[in-house]
User: Fold Glutaminase from Halobacillus andaensis.
Amino acid sequence: MPELSTQYLNEAIEDSKPFASQGSVNAAIPTFDDTMKDLLGVTIITKDFEIYSAGDYKQNVPMQSTSKIIGLMLALQDFGKDRVFQTVGMEPMGDFFNSISSLESPDTNKPFNPMINAGAISVASLIKGQSVDKRFERYLTFLKDITENDDLEMDESVYQSEIANGARNRSLAYFMQSTGTLVTDVEEALDLYFRMNSIMMCCNDFARVGLFLARGGIDPDGNKLIPDHHLRTVKAIMLTSGMYNASGHFAVEVGFPCKSGVSGSVIGSVPGKMGIGVVGPAIDSKGNSTAGGALIKKLSKDLELNMFGIENTAGE
Amino acid sequence: MPELSTQYLNEAIEDSKPFASQGSVNAAIPTFDDTMKDLLGVTIITKDFEIYSAGDYKQNVPMQSTSKIIGLMLALQDFGKDRVFQTVGMEPMGDFFNSISSLESPDTNKPFNPMINAGAISVASLIKGQSVDKRFERYLTFLKDITENDDLEMDESVYQSEIANGARNRSLAYFMQSTGTLVTDVEEALDLYFRMNSIMMCCNDFARVGLFLARGGIDPDGNKLIPDHHLRTVKAIMLTSGMYNASGHFAVEVGFPCKSGVSGSVIGSVPGKMGIGVVGPAIDSKGNSTAGGALIKKLSKDLELNMFGIENTAGE
Amino acid sequence: MPELSTQYLNEAIEDSKPFASQGSVNAAIPTFDDTMKDLLGVTIITKDFEIYSAGDYKQNVPMQSTSKIIGLMLALQDFGKDRVFQTVGMEPMGDFFNSISSLESPDTNKPFNPMINAGAISVASLIKGQSVDKRFERYLTFLKDITENDDLEMDESVYQSEIANGARNRSLAYFMQSTGTLVTDVEEALDLYFRMNSIMMCCNDFARVGLFLARGGIDPDGNKLIPDHHLRTVKAIMLTSGMYNASGHFAVEVGFPCKSGVSGSVIGSVPGKMGIGVVGPAIDSKGNSTAGGALIKKLSKDLELNMFGIENTAGE
Amino acid sequence: MPELSTQYLNEAIEDSKPFASQGSVNAAIPTFDDTMKDLLGVTIITKDFEIYSAGDYKQNVPMQSTSKIIGLMLALQDFGKDRVFQTVGMEPMGDFFNSISSLESPDTNKPFNPMINAGAISVASLIKGQSVDKRFERYLTFLKDITENDDLEMDESVYQSEIANGARNRSLAYFMQSTGTLVTDVEEALDLYFRMNSIMMCCNDFARVGLFLARGGIDPDGNKLIPDHHLRTVKAIMLTSGMYNASGHFAVEVGFPCKSGVSGSVIGSVPGKMGIGVVGPAIDSKGNSTAGGALIKKLSKDLELNMFGIENTAGE
Assistant:
């Protein structure tokens, strides 16, 4: 097993970069262009706060779907597990993240899980606050605490693009209103959801989120922000549903909780061990970073991070 | 944390038994009747071969869907991962285990995963052997090796019932033939599948299967039967898809790989730690043992077995 | 064969009224209440302008889905058949009128037909005019011409209720925007659609619409408003899709073009012979008037109006 | 309006032939090859038994799906409307003719209609007789009576091909067995269905079937074989569902009952007027003859056969 080091990460980046050619950059993100296709960066932070970075790890990209796990943590804090999962399920499903037909299924009266768009909008509608501004402020403050990065902010152009291209999400939200799943103001829930997706982060920030989940919900100052049982819930749902409709593939090939975004971002969380942040803007048809996915598989294999292997257990 | 002991297990059984009243016994299984509704048994075998049993742990029930993980191991041995997953996917899905509409989806040319009926029939079609008899003999020998139980055998009445009630599985198999997914003889694949489901096992046998997966694929004589990477694959798929369309729920509430059968059986596998076998014939509408599910959730919580918790890691 | 007369219609009403008990009044319509459940009225106007009425034929109800055929005629006038059917299909389907999953089907890039909500919203988006007000004015003027009823107007409370309960239709419209099917302003298309549904009409008005279609698109003053080929298109689509997902049933049991609305209204059009207007507010789970449906089946049988019978042909 | 004559039909054939290039010959039919792609023939028989033919009208092709309307007539005779439509619906649907997901819909416990494969297999299972041989003999005798053609017979190679390529139909049939829709022996129902599809007919035979339906169910000897109400039922279902998932298109563009088969055959029935038989082996992706479809649209327009036009009515 290779030792975790900057040099190892540099080599891993070089190995994984060629996979970028199999993907394409999301044209809907205004801060993106084709020159970014070959970017690939990674940051790993261990439970003892050792930090390793390589490649384009300083590149900022919008959170997109990685925001879904932050929203879920806040909603669990605000309302508890029972109430949250009255609104959204916790079952993985095989459809695309923006699928609407699953919402019409007579077997479900709610979105399958909080990692698909409908579910995340529904979860966002629960986050407490007297206005969208206040609710977003809470979200951002929580995220700054976790990442220890006070400079985090929303990119206005990404936010405007989310609104302009928001027809599908708007359709999902109004569908949920029609079935009684979404009981708060639809446009407010969408507005908050669009803002959450538009926060700009780099690999270090993503890695901090992964570490927060991996290390027991303790912020860098040692404050316990989220109880263990909520963290376990979030991580389990990441593993079964965090990588869009390739989640099963990543459960097998990576074997620890991950969450991707269509900005090519990936958050990895290895329970008790480390947080991983990856940015690689070229994504595949399912929405996952092609080079970033290759990289995180390599890390899992080389560093023996797969939770389903007996190497990665207390017992052996 | 309570110590794992027979007394603890006795108490856990008593706590979980009342949940049997929420389920019902599968009327299609000829060896079952309503008097079995309240049965509940468990066996745990640790990595050091300590054995703890409680309740109705001697009750034999047919394997039903728990056979799916044995079939998958054999097919992986016979053909390797690439070939197997040309035939079947590894993605979880939200539909019922005998769903056929997913097979007609234009996004998939194969069953979503090996834990649903269509996928398991497809996997069974791959198991090598010159005849159904030979193929089943291999299956049974492999199972005897794992469980160290030479008395395992198929129940003829269960097998006949599988055939008599096999219309849905037959429909799934012919559908796969029509799309080119199933290329071997359909009736032979079904016959093997029906036999595999009809083997009678008790809690100890189920626990041995869990232990085999948890302990690195080594049979009781110390022989390495299956390589680690195949075991990781099977366990990851169990976690995302092993408990029918409640797999997400069990990933959150139990947090280690499990596989259930409509006979009320559950195999649990805690990587590096232990195998768990549960029998509780009363099942819910999704096909999972109600009392058995409650029991396995309790074991996970009390004994801190949840893989997504930092307690269950080398690091803490 | 009984002669068409007021007395015959009175008897037909009495025969059909008991079927009202099998339906229920649409609670979402603010002008409706349970006291209206047993209402049933009918007006028949022959090609020679003989008028027969019976029962509660003076009862005004909102057009609801019967507006869909007026919208289709206007859009065909404005843009021609090719353009309209780029936006919407002409195939019947088996789903409910407000189904959204059909819009996600990879085989269709547009709503199945103009008689379901999505299709009608899409058609409404095509009606020409510089503002919603102007477009609605055109619609109303056209309807007044057809019905020779200058008093037709929208009910404000129905319109407000359409808006308030419009989440599903809004979801459908934004979905079509997301796929590029709906290219005009979504809220304007919805606003026009809601207004069209809210016009109050009685049996005589509905019968006039049926007669207009049956008699060659000639208004009472003898002006040819719509060419024959557009009328044939509308009538054929009414026959295959006009009675929600009971259209096949009505094609068999009635056998001439009909269009129903959830207000319990039915427009019948017997080519070359007559127009029929029915109002019976108690509707079944598919959205069709129970007593009105029974009545129109009886009329078809008694008066030999079924187009698939050889009695109703030039040749016999 | 042109006069119906052999010369007119010859011209119509020439006009329509070029559309053959848009289709392709069904490779699964053993009597077919690519040299047949450009064939196109037609026979029209009027209510007064005038016969007009043109093009390749002597070409024999297997009945394929055109057999569905014969099977439906026999089942209606044997069991009556109520019993038949307990087994199968009468609603059009938008899916392909061999779709299975519609059978899993919770809104339906039976196939949508008798014109799709599942529905036709279900209907075939109802045809009375003590063995498949006897049941097929009844079917063939009925067909000989209608067509006045004693030479009709099944093509053995087509029948064998139906069996060999029957996986999808077998899947449909076993699915219906699993839901209790198909209660007779599955393999017998399939065998009868395959034989029915394999009878060889030419344009004259197809036209005779159309005439039988159009002229009141009277065989050439003047015997009333099927009551009017059953004929109306069959014709209405042909109009809403007879041309696969292009039935709505043909209802608009042709406007009288038709039934197509994947052999490129089309039966047209103009109530009270005529029967039409068309053979043009090149079919489109939905299963309809491309040149044959063009021809039948032209006939409808030129000869004013569209039932939704006021020209084609007693009144004008």
Remarks:
- The interface with chain B takes residues 106-107 of chain C (CB under 8 Å).
- Chain C has two domains: 6-64+200-306, 65-197.
- Residues 6-64+200-306 of chain C form a domain with the Beta-lactamase fold (CATH 3.40.710.10).
